Amino acid sequence: MEANVSLVPSITPSSSDPSGRVDTWPTKVEKLEKLHSSEMYEMIHNHLALILGPRMGDLASVAQISKLRVGQVYAASVMYGYFLKRVDQRFQLEKSMKILPGGLDDSKTSVEQPENVTFKAVSSHPEVGSFAGGVSAKGFGSEIKPSRLRTYVMSFDSETLQRYATIRSREAVGIIEKHTEALFGKPEIVITPEGTVDSSKDEQIKISFGGMKRLVLEAVTFGSFLWDVESHVDARYHFVLN
Prior knowledge:
It holds the Pfam family DUF760. InterPro entries: At3g17800-like, DUF760. Residues 1-24 are annotated as: Disordered. It is a single chain. The chain is mainly α. The chain has one domain (29-187, 199-237). The chain has helices spanning 29-33, 38-52, 67-96, 116-124, 129-132, 148-154, 158-165, 170-184, 209-237; strands at 62-66, 190-191, 197-198, 204-208. Strand 2 and strand 3 (197-198) form a beta hairpin. Helix 2 (38-52) packs antiparallel against helix 3 (67-96), helix 3 crosses helix 4 and helix 4 (116-124) packs across helix 7. The longest helix is centred in the middle third of the chain and has 30 residues, at 67-96. The model is unreliable at 106-113 and 126-142 (pLDDT under 50).
């Protein structure tokens, strides 16, 4: 479980960058990419494409964006990484035993992205909802590529998909919440008398699309490691409620 990749520090404007960008950390993208199986990385790449859209090829561009929004994407990506590692573990086992469902090698695989699994997990854990709630990859609009692992996921029935999308322990949910707050601060969400969200206190930050890619990759990797650690600890202390 050793990655040898430092996590990004708390998200604040850098005094050393005259533009006020927050992403002055090393990219480490290649190291993060190599921590995943090829099938899992195909899903991660599509997740990145859904978030970054056409800016995937223009990572040097800088955008001003809501800090809360970036925090939402980060928390949702942690949950997605947790889900992907859980599914990939089962996929790799069935692959090694040669018992994968038929048709996974067919080039005409479905291009439907099961991104909703992350948001089902969010709805199951309102503790993290202030960050991850309301995030939907569909809003970013980008074409995704077929992959064997996606086709495998789409073969699940709704009950199995929901089970795999749910974070199993309160401890894991607490770690996601505390880690996200450590990066982005505790979100101040104010509801107006009219029932709308008052965004006047929502801080705007400047971040490059390369920085966003690094953040999302880290978040997905953090989620996958969280699954590993939770499983390792549960094997000894049996704290997960199945």
